[in-house]
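Posting for a labmate who doesn't have an account.
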Amino acid sequence: MLLAAAPALTRIYTPDQFGIFSLFVAVTASILPAASLRYEMAIPIAERGETARSLIHLCAVILTITTLLTAVLLYAASNLFSSLENFHNSWLIFAYAGAMVTMGVQQILSYWLIREKNFKRVSLSRCTQSMATLLSQILLGINWRSPLALISGFLIGQTSGVIVASTGLLATWRRVSGTEALCAARQYKEFPTYSAPGAVLFALSSYCGLFIVSFMFGPAAAGFFGLSLRVVLLPIGVIAQAVGQVFYSRAAEAHREGRLGSLVLKMYSRLLAVSLVLAMPMIVAGPGLIAAIFGEPWRESGYFVRYLAPWALLEFGLGPLSRVPFVLGAQRQDLRFQAIALAVRSLFAAGGAMLGGPRTAVLCLGIGSALVSFWYTLWILRTLGLIRSTVKEFLTSAVAAGACALPLVVVQLWLPAYLPTLIGAAVFCMALGGIQYWFRFHLPPSLKPNLSN
């Protein structure tokens, strides 16, 4: 939904304004994993309901403390933000604190709803959040074209999502003692010890390119990069997070029953088929598609999208897979990997920025990110003994996606400047991908032999 509204937003706001807003979201998202020390991740896997309630109480207390500490640190470092045009430091501090509270509370509530298998409420909360965000940003932007309008709309959307997620929960809540919360904290101490630092490192590695591009080339380049992240990683992140949360609620049980490998293979093969089909239009015709959809001034983002598409392809399947280390108790290995990933992505992005312009920096970032994502995926699949099965699924999906992309390749070669045909070919490419996905994964088994004869 946010992606669908982006064409309207790019015609209201400038790349510079988008760049400042993208930096705000990146900073908040980088701090957020430490907001409740990742204790919310233990809520779905707690064996007793009383323990899960104690964890929610613990998360709320930690979130309050970390939000206050963040506000104090931002106030102490307010001179760092004095160069941002039209920003008032006190407003910025309140905005960061509000974003941390609303996003942190929504995380906690989402994991509780997942534990209760109330996926309908989770989906409704996310839809409400997206709709409120885009409507607020569009309406505020009509008369107030400023990064503050984008930030205000973002906060309104987050608050709306929290209200929907919390509806009906207070009536069933009961008081939790401090002793119970401390017992839960000791029981799941591996989450703040390994998972929280790993999540912060993961967020920093995801946004380090944006920070480096902004620092080296200014807010306009950050705006182009922010739109490319919105086009490439936002929809992937939303889908992967939704699938990953459902997978996480079932993975612990599957691990106890000895069928975790089959569950991972089933999920990953489907995500792989979808990601390859989605990545093909971005790789083949990224600049033309971005210019047609978001406006000619944003064509530069299309090159960024093209360079980031292989990384996005791997991240689409890796999102749910990243829950596997928590199920297997391998948080320490995951923390080590996240530190290496941050170092590799930062070095590639900084090296590209010094060698050339923003395109070179993003190209190098895409290469480094794809390498570390491939390495991480390989580690998880090898741990579960799924390398051979996954290679077979990848080759099958790659051949199918390549065949679906042929019409788009032809159009790109012969009519690259005719944008309606380019968009039509991209839609046709994805439609073919949807058809082949249905044939592979949803066709009744009784019909498959008939089709192969």
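Reply:
Got it, the structure tokens are right above this. Residues 1-188 form one domain.
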